[in-house]
User: Fold this.
Amino acid sequence: ASPNYYKFVIKEAWYTRLCYSKKILTVNGQFPGPTMYAYKGQTIVVEVHNQANDNITLHWHGVKQPRNPWSDGPVYITQCPIQPGKMFRQEIILSDEEGTLWWHAHNSWLRATVYGAMIIYPKPGTNYPFPRPYKEHVIILGEWWKEDIKDVLQYVLESGGQPSLSSAYLINGQPGDFYECSENATYELNVKRGKTYMLRIINAALDEIFYYAIANHSLTVVGTDASYTKPLTREIISITPGQTYDVLFHPNLTPGYYYMAANAYVNGTLVKSLNASATAVVKYNETSSSKPSNPPFPRFPLDNDTSTDFNFSRSLRSLASKEHPIDVPKKVGSRLFTTVSMNSFPCDTNATCEGPNGTRLAASMSNISFIDPSIDILEAYYYNIKGVYGKNFPKFVPYVFDFTAENQPSYLFTPKKGTEVRMYKYGTSVEMVLQGTSLLSSIDHPMHLHGYSFYVVGIGRGNFDKNKDPKNYNLVDPPIRNTVNVPNNGWVTIRFKTDNPGVWFVHCHVEAHVTWGMNTVFIVKDGNKSEEKMLPPPPDMPPC
Ligand code: C2O
Ligand code: CU
Assistant:
């Protein structure tokens, strides 16, 4: 087979973590799933064979799929699920992405175990915009539940409450030394002193934002979400679900053993204690001693640190060089002001709802809580099937309030339910302000846009001020991303040009928030020229 063809067989396999064995869903029996390799601009063909008992869809996170939403994967947005026993041939069209992306299941919460890395090299004959690293390694962060993930989701749907916290965090599928029955399988990264390594770091966790660090060493970010950045050196990196970082790591300390670790945080505060960190071990080849019982451990920010992530995100700059130029829309054709909020619904059907005050937890964008349609929106759009979705996702929040004040009136907690999309003409320069709110609980929301990457031109705390804040926008070298963190009680402004016709999901990459409705869809209409029109559907689209 040619190097850009993959066969992905969805099947169950037994895995043991934390002294328990359970059956999980995998691709080809592997966990984490297989790494895909490609050159910039290649097209990859993946034959997805579903040999499991569950419906599934697969998504290629961060691949723009020019004109080809058919292979994008989010369930009931661009396709119906691939049923057990069925096959779907997906075409992954790469364009300007270069660096690290990943792929994952995009229905129910199956991406808990169905995920893997995608590495996109520079075109043959071209180079990285930094000296070639001695070696490269994928570092993929995840979560593990002792329960079956389908039961975790079922519990959330029935109780209306929060999902149980995962039993462990993972680095390359392993919890590491701090967890029971895990020490022997801890991931070990062997390094030669004085060489430079590239780590391709991916956060594949369902719900958690991580701090990531290597004890006593610094990391130099050179890329985010498959686009290059100016080098940014930090001791700690924060990474939300959906994001990737390419970092250079230069081991030059006393040869020995050092922990790398990942630990989840909410608003700066660790979700679990430090000894609930996922760990892996960096081992210098020059050392002849065996591993000590406690190698140096990274210094993570402790409680109520609100600046590590904020300052890190604000310091990122795209490379914006001659070889890697950028094209930030300077004039805006269409403005969108959107809130992202936690909400709740009154609990009328189930008397024991576990949300606040007996409610059912919900989430929304511009106070609309997204409801999955029964057939996919792409099909409804393409074949003009009425009644599947509405076109009224608001341009502005339907009413104005002080977004980040304490003690908001409780009527604001109850959003509308709906399947509302926003329609765009081809070639529109869009500016979208994403405003976090203090409704119910003010937490970070890593918002992800399918079909595009975007420029993050502004980020700030508190309420967005339309007179003052745009003056500080970075239109020179803003970072290019596909997933951006809307800081708790803060805002982010992104810009992009609607040059990719299709049906594109917009959502928070915290899986529970997707289930609660923090989603919408952008439909970008065809342009006039033939190369501005959607491709026709493949013959084997999974039927609804
Ligand atoms: Cu990483 Cu909608 O996905
Ligand atoms: Cu969220």
In short: The helical segments are 149-159, 308-315, 377-382, 511-516. The mean pLDDT is 96.
